[in-house]
Amino acid sequence: MSKSPITTHILDLGRGLPAAGVDVILERVTTNGTETLASGSTDADGRIMQWFDAPLSPGHYRLRFATGAWYQARGLETFYPEVSLDFQVSDTDAHYHVPLLLNQWGYSTYRGS
């Protein structure tokens, strides 16, 4: 299976399991605002690997995770109703994997492989 140039993965650290069914939006940030490039939901393994095929341009990108709705659907409260991760693409031939380590009260991220 081929993968998009930008992918993501969410682990729910509170349960120790992948976070399946989280809605995610990928945007490109420009001087005129934002442009939505793709949207989708994480699969059973908490991943979105193939959600767009367009080539990347250098620039500022943003992933928006609907964490509040996901926790609410499970009857749980969360401090962050949305997690927004901004990152820079410089090498348009590279793959950018942006994981999210999530719990109800915090989150962490890094550039994955």
Mind sketching the topology for me?
Elements: E1 6-12, E2 17-18, E3 23-30, E4 33-41, E5 47-48, E6 59-65, H1 67-73, E7 83-89, E8 96-103, E9 106-109
Parallel strand pairs: 1-8
Antiparallel strand pairs: 1-2, 1-5, 3-4, 3-6, 6-7, 8-9
Order of helices and strands: EEEEEEHEEE
Helix/strand-derived class?
mainly beta
* CATH architecture label: Sandwich
Mean pLDDT: 96
Q: Note the main sheet.
A: 5 strands, mixed
CATH superfamily: Transthyretin/hydroxyisourate hydrolase domain
Number of H- or I-type helical stretches: 1
Tally of distinct domains: 1
Principal-axis shape = globular
Helix content: under 10%
- Give the number of DSSP strands: 9
Instruction: Calculate Rg over CA atoms.
Output: 14 Å
